[in-house]
Amino acid sequence: MVFGIFLCLDAFLYVFTLLPLRVCLALFRLLTLPCYGLRDRRLLQPAQVCDIFKGVILVICYFMMHYVDYSMMYHLIRGQSVIKLYIIYNMLEVADRLFSSFGQDILDALYWTATEPKERKRAHIGVIPHFFMAVLYVFLHAILIMVQATTLNVAFNSHNKSLLTIMMSNNFVEIKGSVFKKFEKNNLFQMSNSDIKERFTNYVLLLIVCLRNMEQFSWNPDHLWVLFPDVCMVIASEIAVDIVKHAFITKFNDITADVYSEYRASLAFDLVSSRQKNAYTDYSDSVARRMGFIPLPLAVLLIRVVTSSIKVQGILSYACVILFYFGLISLKVLNSIVLLGKSCQYVKEAKMEEKLFTPPPTSTPGKPPSKPQSRSKLPQGLASEETLSASVTSQPPHPKENIIPLLVTSNSDQFLTTPDGDEKDITQENPDLKHRSAKKDLLEIDRFTICGNRID
């Protein structure tokens, strides 16, 4: 989980550090295009087109957020009763997951529409409607996260701390809703990624709460120590709930703790494969698909809060801002180097180096989907093995004559919820099949959907 949090941090810092530089380079290419001439069919590379769209969406949503009054929202929420605020906070958590589920699909649809080959027949509504849909999504999701941060800020500033206690007890409701359910390894992998995304989002929300409170107290350092116990209490409750939840889930479903090293290796494989020269997608998109973490709305809100809380006046202040920006770039580069080294180590320990040279299962903006190609290039001897390693996000396998007879008697629901013990029985005769199917499942599964298949 710590490794996953640093992956989210790397994708989040990318929006503030490298994305502005990439947008400037893409715009510089557009301005100097007459000097180079039209050597290629495209004015810009597909990655540069996606970078420009991300930058324009960030700028538009940032100016739109100026029309949302944070102070009025705070006093409006503060006037509500405790029980009503508790219900609102639960509804906001559900809405945040729903927004994240289709948000990446909206953004991927925009990237694919803008970068698809010209000779391809267009069967969609066009780039401009997709762009407005993406702007609307990022704006609404940023407002939703702002309401979450405001509710948490009200809980911190309440006199008797009752609302904060109730909101912390909401974490323990997760234990009741998940511990006594049947889990398979792939489902546990999805839940682990969701927990990583939720914890990182809560850290950013706590940062926003601290910034708003410090602004109200004129940046008095003594008030920071007043907020520090509550922040530690919220973080400790989240960690305790996750430990208890995962411990009982692995106990009741007979799943060994070694499965978390496989999850970590799968995340490391995503990072290493996205750093190749022929990588199809940017790493931030890979993290978004795997964990459901979309950094754009969170970045818009954080920029809005920082610019409204901190006033920059004078040459010395601008010099400090420039130094802080270079510090963020240094942190991003250092974090990326350490993560890449650790990821290579985890991939080698899991013996997954040979999979780096195979095309990824998802299609990407600017390239045709690779799903049919991956099926056509499979060796004949591995047909039944690839059938076993089908993803949860794809359609369930149907009984066929060439599949192992033990799988013919089980329907799709039983196969998708097979516990760890039954997998041992299925692959007892062929240990290589067990190793291949376990690794392949974790590599092909996405947090919500394989976005490229839906776009096409």
Can you walk me through this structure?
By secondary structure, this protein is mainly α. 72% of the residues lie in helices and 0% in strands. It is built from 21 helices and no strands. It has helices spanning 2-16, 18-31, 33-36, 46-65, 70-78, 82-115, 127-157, 162-178, 185-216, 221-252, 259-274, 283-291, 295-309, 315-349, 371-376, 383-388, 405-408, 412-416, 420-426, 431-444, 451-455. The longest helix is centred in the C-terminal third of the chain and has 35 residues, at 315-349. The radius of gyration is 24 Å and the shape is globular. The two termini are 33 Å apart.
Topology at a glance:
Layout: H1 2-16, H2 18-31, H3 33-36, H4 46-65, H5 70-78, H6 82-115, H7 127-157, H8 162-178, H9 185-216, H10 221-252, H11 259-274, H12 283-291, H13 295-309, H14 315-349, H15 371-376, H16 383-388, H17 405-408, H18 412-416, H19 420-426, H20 431-444, H21 451-455
Briefly say what this structure is.
The protein is an all-alpha fold and 456 residues long. The chain has helices at 2-16, 18-31, 33-36, 46-65, 70-78, 82-115, 127-157, 162-178, 185-216, 221-252, 259-274, 283-291, 295-309, 315-349, 371-376, 383-388, 405-408, 412-416, 420-426, 431-444, 451-455.
Provide keyphrases for this structure:
single chain; 456 residues; mainly alpha
